[in-house]
Amino acid sequence: MSGTSADGIDAVLTRISAGPRRTNLKLVAHIHRPYPRELRERILHCSLHGTVAELCELNFELGEEFAGAALAVLRKVRVSPKDIYAIGSHGQTVHHLPNARHASTLQLGEPAVIAERTGIRTVADFRVADMAAGGQGAPLVPYMDWVLFTYPSRPRIVQNIGGIGNLTFLPAAAQLDDVLAFDTGPGNMLLDGAMTTLTRGKQSMDRGGKSAAQGKVAEQLLRKLMGHPFLCRKPPKTTGREEFGEPFLQRVLSDARRARLSTPDLLATLTAFTAASIADAYVRFVFPRFRSSDRARLQVILGGGGAKNPTLKRMLAAELEARQGDAKPEILTHEDFGIPNAAKEAMAFALLAHEALHGRAANVPSATGARHPAVLGKVCYP
């Protein structure tokens, strides 16, 4: 898969066995193939301004890229394509419109090309079945979170911080219907966009949060950012570049110029916005769902690129402590559970492909808003 940040493709080889709630996933191999700069720029361009012709060609070009990534991870461990049960491909999201007059979504990376190049049946286009059933088509990873992280006596929040932040709340001993999941707001999207713009493309991220750590949060700008209407919208809800992409970033940069913020101060403020929007989502929508006594047992499991940003993690911990007091949650990462952070989301779509080929629904209606459970994905054969 490739996420909203469009930085490249993560491909995994995963061994899956057993059935629902007894499912065992084992990571065999993982690779990350960055997109060439020119390709990434075209993806970001097409996400907001692409013509029909550009989208059409990019769909097939990305199919070739995804096929190449699948074959590369097999070569890494010398496994033959003939030994593979199936490929699950999320593709590259270029537009996601859950609240439009006709709710819709578009992921590129033509699965027929993947199947043809690899000789492996390919399951793709996972979001549309949920949207056809009245859901938002996202988030879809909560099914894997429920399978892997539900714990008998502890509530858990699985917090992904990719381009967009999203959470899965798992009450203790949760059944699938108990799961709450939604997008919290921007994750790394604004940080990456600001860094790319301010360095004129020389840097695409504030690696390790080092620049933000040197800055001071501009409280007035942060208050303005926290007034974004998405943050108080009730779940189910999803977002993306349509709300927090380039047009929104340009308004933020304009505000920063008027306030004469330095680059470190702007990055510190945007990092604080991500942390505060996540904590705000917990207070508004998660904490009211369980007893105060349960908060002391709460674990927050971080994933995504933001989990590797010490400045963001520190700010998030401070925000949660300010809101929780003595009952501050334990903050962990996917690696604490033996799951490499970078491989997790690709593993999730391997699981969704597995469930589709067994005819099992894998959306979470309580998270997406769908009217009923749905089998996700379309199958292409070589």
Any chance you could write out the topology, listing elements then pairs?
Blueprint: E1 8-17, E2 24-34, H1 37-49, H2 52-76, E3 87-89, E4 92-97, E5 104-108, H3 111-118, E6 122-124, H4 127-132, H5 142-149, E7 156-161, E8 164-170, E9 180-186, H6 189-198, H7 210-213, H8 219-225, H9 229-232, H10 241-244, H11 246-258, H12 263-286, E10 299-303, H13 310-324, E11 330-333, H14 344-357, H15 365-368, E12 378-380
Parallel strand pairs: 3-6, 7-10, 10-11
Antiparallel strand pairs: 1-2, 4-5, 6-12, 7-8, 8-9
Helix pairs in contact: 2-3, 6-12, 8-12, 12-13
Description of the molecule:
It is a single chain. This protein is of the alpha/beta class and 382 residues long. It has two domains: 8-136 and 342-380, ATPase, nucleotide binding domain (Nucleotidyltransferase, domain 5); 142-337, ATPase, nucleotide binding domain (Nucleotidyltransferase, domain 5, 2-Layer Sandwich), CATH 3.30.420. It has helices at residues 37-49, 52-76, 111-118, 127-132, 142-149, 189-198, 210-213, 219-225, 229-232, 241-244, 246-258, 263-286, 310-324, 344-357, 365-368, and strands at residues 8-17, 24-34, 87-89, 92-97, 104-108, 122-124, 156-161, 164-170, 180-186, 299-303, 330-333, 378-380. The protein has a five-stranded mixed beta sheet with strand order 9-8-7-10-11, with helices on both faces. A three-stranded mixed beta sheet has the order 3-6-12, with helices on both faces. Strands 1-2 form a two-stranded antiparallel sheet. Helix 13 links the parallel strand 10 (299-303) and strand 11. It is globular, with a radius of gyration of 20 Å. The two termini are 20 Å apart. The relative contact order is 0.17. The model has no long low-confidence stretch (mean pLDDT 94).
